[in-house]
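Dissemination and training. As part of the outreach component of the grant, students in the summer workshop were shown how a complex can be specified as a set of sequence lines and then modelled as a single object. The example used during the hands-on session is reproduced here so that future cohorts can follow it. Participants entered these lines:
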Amino acid sequence: DLEIAMKVVIVGNGSVGKSSMIQRFCKGIFTRDYKKTIGVDFLERIIMVDDQPVRLMLWDTAGQEEFDAITRTYYRGANACVLACSIADKESFLALPKWKNKVCRECGDIPMVLVANKVDLQKESVVDSAELEGMARSLGVPKLIKSSVKDDLNVSTVFNYLAQSYMQS
Ligand code: GDP
Ligand code: MG
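and obtained this result:
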């Protein structure tokens, strides 16, 4: 079978765990202070979707989240998107509509998933399930996934879902 390649962008406020999520999925590791390797724009991993190999290229922004000129180049040609926030960071939750709009402006209607990360920090949670579900609904994002990159909870679920959605689109 011919391999299908997919560009996936992970967007959201700084510190929600975007770089960690890419590292976890592509390298299987978690570190407290991840520093982007100079010169590397993305990491990749091949997964199988119904006997079809799919090469996922996961693009990282290296903490340049606030610079529009950089992020627009970064979004270009994306086939799917992770909208990420942290359950321990209210601002990151409230910023989700802004991130979705930025991606839509550049990429149109691509498969998206809302990821609420850091569920291991339940005691520090400032966003509840009802709020997350309400946000997903109001953004028109059909899938909400609660994850912990730290505990390796639901990280592969996120990328399997996006690959499947892309294959069906
Ligand atoms: P980014 O700015 O969105 O790329 O976030 P990073 O991946 O750099 O992560 C920011 C900090 O949050 C780092 O110290 C990570 O180790 C930590 N982190 C990432 N994911 C989790 C998680 O699921 N749980 C906890 N407790 N910490 C996390
Ligand atoms: Mg980062």
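The mean pLDDT is 91. Students were then asked to discuss how this feature might be tested experimentally.
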